[in-house]
């Protein structure tokens, strides 16, 4: 089946810069690619790397919107390269930049790992059971209300791509701000009945300007999350929880 845009020649304007190489300077380089039906930004980048620029740096693992590696700024919007069809752009000019707010490895490749690791240690992203409770491996797991299981599942869909962090003006201004990915993790454990952390415990983590009280609620996170996590609802939920804990 032919697409409406078959036969277009796409012009990709891509930031090239290798900070590891002394003397290298950031510059935009243009590559031309013949559009094919079903072409994604990832497929186009692969073609560019195979046929025009062997040194072009970008990340991917799954090619299916699951691993979160291929986040980049596509025509001004943080998104996943493997899930973005070139056909969605009416004009044949596509600009690609690395995600801001993360250290640049080179070209379109950034290090989201250092943020994610620090965030996981800060939020302590694992179930906190009652202190001192002995684990009995023969014990049956407690039943969970299906609606609660759905709520947890919804939040667990975060692929740690970093698009919400890059779209957040507060995070760009203040490095210590936890950011939306962190808020989604806090919400995920705060709603989980197996996690015994109290609102006061959570207040220690997010009850300040580097937590939910620093969030400006402009919802760049909600608008740019490729997995459509419920940022608005859950940030409001956390804020209400923290106001209650502060009383
Ligand atoms: S919340 Fe959404 S945008 Fe943020 S890291 Fe997770 S999947 Fe990516
Ligand atoms: S709503 Fe809060 S977390 Fe989301 S982008 Fe805005 S400041 Fe960042
Ligand atoms: S390559 Fe895994 S999300 Fe795009």
Provide structural commentary:
The protein is an alpha+beta fold and 247 residues long. It has 2 domains: 9-110, Ubiquitin-like (UB roll) (Roll), CATH 3.10.20; 112-131 and 144-246, Fumarate Reductase Iron-sulfur Protein, Chain B, domain 2. It is built from 9 helices and 7 strands, in the order E-E-H-E-E-E-E-E-H-H-H-H-H-H-H-H. Strand 3 and strand 4 (77-80) form a beta hairpin. The radius of gyration is 21 Å and the shape is elongated. It starts with 8 loop residues before the first strand and ends with a helix. The relative contact order is 0.12.
Identify the CATH homologous superfamily of the largest domain: Alpha-helical ferredoxin
How many domain units? 2
Number of helices: 9
- Strand portion, in percent? 5-15%
Can you write the helix and strand succession as a string?
EEHEEEEEHHHHHHHH
Q: How is the biggest beta sheet arranged?
A: 5 strands, mixed
Biggest sheet, spatial arrangement of strands: 2-1-5-3-4
* Coarse morphology: elongated
Give the helix/strand class: alpha+beta
Q: What's the end-to-end separation, in Å? A: 62 Å
Number of beta strands:
7
- Given as residue ranges, the uncertain stretches (5+ residues, pLDDT < 50) are 1-5
